[in-house]
Structure formats: structure tokens, C-alpha cells
Specification:
The chain is α+β, with helices and mostly antiparallel strands. The chain contains 5 helices and 2 strands; from the N terminus they run E-H-E-H-H-H-H. It has a two-stranded antiparallel sheet. One of its GO terms (molecular function) is mannose-ethanolamine phosphotransferase activity. This is GPI ethanolamine phosphate transferase 3. One of its GO terms (biological process) is GPI anchor biosynthetic process.
Length: 110
Amino acid sequence: TLLLLLGDHGMTEEGNHGGAAPEETEAGLFAVALGSTGEATTTPPRRWDDLQGWLPMAQECSQDRRSVAQVDLVPTLSALLGLPIPYSNLGGMVPDLLDLVSTETWAPGG
């Protein structure tokens, strides 16, 4: 299981977004690969308390922070989901995200 939590754009302190300032073009991305327990579930956590368990892991992971270009997310997510990369996309793959997924337990589109 691969959990991705991301934003589509940032915002300045004044509330502006969609411009070219770094505060507007940078967005958060959190990715973690979870070990399989052998039990499939389709029920997402619905309460804030259920998500609180992620906080220590998120804080620990943020110490090893890296930057990725927003344009690289679409081809990488397409590959992870087994979908074709859009023809006009100018981005590249994010190797760190691809490395999170074990080829032994994952098959694109499967």
C-alpha cells in the first residue's frame, strides 16, 4: 500500500495563489509505503482520531525532506497507477516515489 498526501499549489500569507512566487508554486507532498498485513480493506479512516497515529511518522519523515517538481507528479502517479502518461506532459519520473513500491507485491493497473 502506498499512501500519498499532496496539495495542488501553495499560497502566500496574503492568500494569493496561482502565481509564480515560490510560496504559490510549492506544495506539500507526503509519501509512505505501508507494509501489507495480508488483509485488504476499502474502508478509509473517517475520524480525526484515526489519523492521529500518522503524526509521529510524518514528523520523523519530514526530517529527510526532498523537493520534487510539481510537473513530475503526473507521470509518476500515472506509472504507479498503471495508466499512460499524458502525451503533452513535460515532467519526468520521481525515483524516490517509485522506489517506495516493491515490484514483488505491486503490479501496475492490477
